[in-house]
Structures are given as structure tokens and as C-alpha cells.
Amino acid sequence: MQQSLDSIKTQTANTDSQKNQRSGGFFEPLMSDFRIIFERDPAARNWLEVIFCYPGFHALCFHRLAHWLHIRKVGFIPRLISHLGRFLTGIEIHPGAKIGKGVFIDHGMGVVIGETAIVGDYALIYQGVTLGGTGKESGKRHPTLGNNVVVGAGAKVLGNIQISDRVRIGAGSIVLRDVPPDSTVVGIPGRIISHKQSKRLSPLEHGKLPDVEAGIIRSLLSRIEKLEQQLQTMNSHQQNEEH
């Protein structure tokens, strides 16, 4: 039920964002994209550095112009702008993708965002991320990300799936199914390892994720030690009985 409500809220927010763009609200999202960099990147020292040296911000500038033209049914030019943005930044965003405000693409090299993808407000996307499809089907075929989602470096989110608000996706994960709010996902394929955060973490602390494989190995080692102790005890009793 909660997931459905979050899905409706995300879709409503993205619809409102698209309406704002249609009504001429072109620069407001860009200002949010600009301000969020200073909040989330300790290396951002001044506005001049951000304007000229941040490819993630450049890619969003290209995309917002291309998307603005795309929703007005302008042909060819939006794709040309998108291609130019890809050439200059290494980030490929289809003009049809819907990107919310305050999105930060950190470094960004190799990021691919497909045509029907939706990215909610204040998402944080690291380098090598793919928001892609899983086939040649028409219609909605790319993922929807809610608000305040963090996608770690190299993660792949594939298909028409819903990544709800405040989800954290670990680096290198491959996510193929819907993820409920406030969850943490890691692994190939992605597994939900936490449904609620015990405390509110900064979006930049995406490295503080549980190591599932290490936990399993520790559990197995502990079990092996107990079995060895039981076996030694049994052998000791058997030797005492023989003597």
C-alpha cells in the first residue's frame, strides 16, 4: 500500500515537473541542479569551478534544453543536442527522459539514461550507471526513480521497474525488480538487504552498506568451528571409552 502511494506521489511530482517545463519553467530546475552540487560535493569550491568543470552539470544543461524541445515535438534537434552533450561529457541522456530538480550526476562518465526513464528530485547518480531497458518492447521500458534515490557507481537498473523514494543502490549492483521505499539494494541480481534505515544517513555515505557476502562467510566459518569442536569432543569421549 505504502509503495503504491509512493509510486503515485512520484508520478504526480514528475507530471508537475513536466507541466512546469511546458509553462516555461526552464531555469528553475537548472538552479536546483547548480545549488545541490555545493551541498553534495566537498570539492566544489566556487561557482566558476562548477560552471566550467562539472560534466554532470553540463550534461543536465544539455538535457534540459533537449527535453524542452522534445516535449514541444521539435524533430532532430533534441537528439543532436543530446549527442553533442554525450560527446562533450561522456554522459548520454535521451531527450525523452524526465529528470527532476536538484539531480546530481557525480563525475558521470559512462552514465546512460534511456528514453522513458524518470528520475525523481534530488537523486544522486555516480559514474557508470545505466538506467536502461531490457528488450525491444515499446512504451514505458526504462526504470522510474523516486526522490532522494542514490545509485552507486557502475550500478545497472534495467526495465520498467519502480525504485521508490530514498532507496540506496550499492555500487556494481544490477536491479531488475521493484524496490520499496527506504530500502538498500546490493548484489547481482540486486537483493534487498534492508527495508528501513536505523538512522538517517547522508546520501554521500553510499559506501556504508552491509557486506552480505562477508556476513555469510563469517556465519559459515562460525558454523564450521562449532562442528569441529563437536567432532573433537566426540573423538575425545570415544577414546576415553576405549581406554
Automatic annotation (TrEMBL):
Pathway: Amino-acid biosynthesis; L-cysteine biosynthesis; L-cysteine from L-serine: step 1/2. Its EC number is 2.3.1.30. Keywords: Acyltransferase, Amino-acid biosynthesis, Cysteine biosynthesis, Cytoplasm, Repeat, Transferase. InterPro entries: Hexapep, LbH_SAT, Ser_AcTrfase_N_sf, Ser_O-AcTrfase, Serine_acetyltransferase, Trimer_LpxA-like_sf. Pfam families: Hexapep. Residues 1-23 have a biased composition (Polar residues). It is an enzyme of class 2 (transferase). One of its GO terms (cellular component) is carboxysome. It comes from the Bacteria. GO terms for molecular function: serine O-acetyltransferase activity; structural constituent of carboxysome shell. Signal peptide: none annotated. Residues 1-24 are annotated as: Disordered. Belongs to the transferase hexapeptide repeat family. NCBIfam families: cysE, EPS_EpsC. This is Serine acetyltransferase. The gene is cysE.
